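To whoever is on call:

I kicked off a structure prediction for a single chain this morning and the downstream step that reads the tokens threw a length-mismatch warning. I double-checked the sequence; it's 430 residues and nothing unusual in it as far as I can see. Pasting both halves so you can look.
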Amino acid sequence: MKDKVTKLINVIKKDGIIGGTKKMVRYFASNYLSKINVFSAWEIKKNQEKYIKELKTIFKGKYDRVIVWRNNFGWNVPLYQRPQHMALAMASKNTLVFYEVTTFTDKVKTLKKQQENLYLVNFNNKEYSKLIFSELENVNKPKYLEVYSTEWLMSAKDLKEYIQKGYKIIYEYIDELTADIAGTKEIPQNILDKFQFALKDKENVYIVATADKLYNDILEKRGQTKLIFSTNGVDYDFYQNFEEYKLEKEYLDIIHNGKINIGYYGALAKWFDYDLIRKINATDKYNIILFGVKYDDSFDNAQISLLKNVHYMGIKEYKILKYYAKEIDILTIPFLINDITKSTSPLKLFEYMALHKPIVTTAMDECLKYKSVMTAKSGQEFLKKLEIAYENRHDKKYIKLLDKEAQENSWDEKSQILIEHLQSEESELL
């Protein structure tokens, strides 16, 4: 309960009393009230035969395995991230995926087909959830529950119950386990319990680590068994196709004001280097264009939006964000170096590559791996790298390198890594 209280406090700090309260009421309604919706339960029972027939049709399809993805991340969220990309990629590789949504983000009463083999499911609809799992008992295919390491509602007990029903667990270790990531005062106990459970159960739990630091952590604590390394990636083809899109005048006025345009998109949080932004602003050479979610109150507290050359453009949906990024000269990741960022595989890094834009970042471990990324260990070096990046923005050899590293890190490649590990043991599950 204390986790929920501190989460509420942080949301109010970030969005204000009115905005924060509205958001938490919506969250409560979508995650708790929806579970006791009497009308919905009655409707499911009344039309049970119809829903069962629909599920049986789905289970008759062509697929090699089933993944039940449980998390309150949602589907239609501004930060289109690893969960959606991996679900799409896995579904395209003969994996039947049931992806959890909530009414906070998605209007899905029961089930919605997103693409072949990928279905969005409202598991908070308890009667419908019972039907799915009842029908899944009759499916003679390898079955997996996939969860995020940062998911804080599901307990270790829940994982054990899935295992008892014949599921294996895919535990995605995606971030350093900290209170800052969770958005709470302390790390929620469910997060810690699931991590400890994943470490102990080498028979039933696959651990997918997305960064070297996370991989080495698991290697040291439980060894190589069922340990998979798979960084974040990019939907390469999505970033090669642009239709006509009209940018607003405010944005056009900024990017055409005669200064070099550098940009960032993503979470604006405690690990963002606001002091570095101040140093860049002081040169008066660059427009610093920021898109993204205020993850906590750090952005407002830093007051960098008051700086002459900083332009905060708010949140842009994934499908249109690329049109804004395409107009920027240099794309950046100005993060502080700490335990969180040392453990981060920045998804945006690979999207920057696919956009063929010069990339400048701080010296994050997962950025140092790529030849196309210019990294800096200090503010002064960051400024020098920005100058080099601007000179290279039309260099054909450099653009070719960006393209090569983007293609090497497609979601198709990342999903294939996971599938190959699963396939090596699936014959024993049947």
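Update from on-call: the warning came from a stale cache, not from the record. Cleared it. Sanity check on the structure: The two ends are 40 Å apart (CA to CA).
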